[in-house]
Amino acid sequence: MENILITGGCGFIGSNFIRHIYHAHPNFRIFNIDVLTYAGNPENLRDIERLESEKPKNERRYQFICGDICDDKLLAGIFSMYDFSLVINFAAETHVDRSIISMTDFIRTNIGGVRALIEAVRNYEVPRFVHISTDEIYGDVLQGYSTEDTMLRPSNPYSSSKAAADLIVQSFIRTHRVPAIIIRGSNNYGPYQYPEKLIPLAVTNLIEGKKIPVHGKGGHMRSWLHVEDFCRAIDLIATQGPLYEIFNVSGEEKTNLEVLTMIARHLGKDLSVHKEHINDRPGADLRYAPDSTKLKKALGWQPMHRIEDSMGDVAQWYLNNREWWNAIKTKKEFLEHYVKQSKGQWS
Ligand code: NAD
Question: Which of 66, 81, 107, 157 is the most exposed, fewest CB within 10 Å of its CB?
Answer without folding.
Answer: 81
